[in-house]
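Quick entry between incubations.
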Amino acid sequence: MTGKRMERGLCELYDEDPERADALVFGRRSGTSRRGFLQGAGLASMGAVLGASIPFNENMPAGLIPSALADDLEDFEIEGKHPGLTVLNDRPVNAETPPHLLDDDVTPNDIHFIRNNGAMPQPMAKEEWSLTIDGEVEEELELSWDQLMNDFEHVTLKLQLECGGNGRAGFNPSPSGNQWTVGAIGNSEWTGVRLKDILERAGLRPSATYTGHYGYDPHLSGDADREAISRGGPIDKMMDPHTIVAFAMNGEDIPIANGYPVRLIAPGWAGSVSQKWLTRIWVRDREHDGPGMTGLSYRVPRYPVAPGTEVPHEDMMVMSSMIVKSIISHPEAGTEVEAGRPVEVRGQAWAGDDHVTAMEVSLDFGVTWQQAELSDPPNRYSWQRWRAEVTPPMQGYYEIWARATDGNGRQQPMVVPGWNPRGYLNNVCHRIDVMAV
Amino acid sequence: MRIPILISRAAAAALLTLPLAAAAEEDNPYAPLPPAEGVETVASHCAACHSARTFVHMRQGRDWWDDTIDRMKRDHGMWDIDTETREEVLDYLEANLGPETD
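Done. Structure below.
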């Protein structure tokens, strides 16, 4: 990874001025008054940053392998993940998939995006893991890995999982949060137990209305008494047979960055409902109020607002289903094509709880549209493959635009849709440029 | 070689494989925060839990940043900072990540 000369450089720096070296390498400063605090948090994130590049690393959490621990995120690689992912943040780790890498019908493990709210946890052994179901249930459960394997029916489904903030970078003024472009979406094949079956085993009380989910990832501050995030969803969504407690991704263990050993998948809703590193589901008699449920997070205004409006909290509501959207996964933006020859264009389309019924593409900035071929989803909640052929009539600069329509006739807009304070639900048409020569 | 006490043994071992690239960034040890007065204070309070990448793209006025400090305290357990430090942090954020900045 690095040469001897370089190795010496940093050691020397640490020798001369450890505090400054620390700030250089980890982008943080151990403030005098907060030294004790930073020690805990700093070490946790340091482990996440260094990951498996560490000799004898058994004791360190898996996570980022810096190919160069520079200030440039392009130099970071995440263990087990494709180097082509775009890393948006290293602490917490957030990385999206460029659309041309989303060309598989089933998203491979190394391609799936990562959205962390806390520090990357040290993987918990399957034997140590358990899932508590408590709250508004007749009988509290604590399920072991073996019980999850043996006591319930397993299902395997291709399920779309999208970050609620996917597309946030398109809003103006820029809302706070990760500046996702289009690639905070994946559609892997997940194997697990229907949450419905587990909840029925526990027996729902009539008062059961909502769930609250908990995972074992540490809060960014390192404070053990805080949850990194704890969201949930209405009981109806949780009783949907496609909402599963997943233990395998594409037939393999779930990568640590995506929730090893067990996570929830509530497909079609903001990814934060699908708690990673799942350890507890608290059945509630009211809307859950864990971190990520309150404030402005994962909420949208009840009525359209002008860009930049400060919306009173009582006028914000919790997001539910994601909305109709599509990407062009082939060709890659910027590709050179031959004038007068047909170009194959293809991609994926999805619509949260709904499905996609029509797909169109345009090669002339939206003046005319042609119907694309659209496949049925292999199961409900999977994204759908679409393809089309377009022919640039002469040489020049072209854009391919793609537009999906859902089962209720709702279409993707050609301009960025309604601004909202936290930048959710941007489903503007995806467009790429091609040069015909 | 002196190893700073806040680095664990495993992390120290890892440091041996670090490239020089980080050290080359010497002119701005607080990147991606823009180098300016108060950067050290801002880094120690706002890049402790998360990377400054969490917020350097924002362009907002002083009030928004002021609310952000309250939000960090309310939602994420950020510690109290005295008025003088708070003003220093806000001065920096307003001057370097304000609506008109870039």
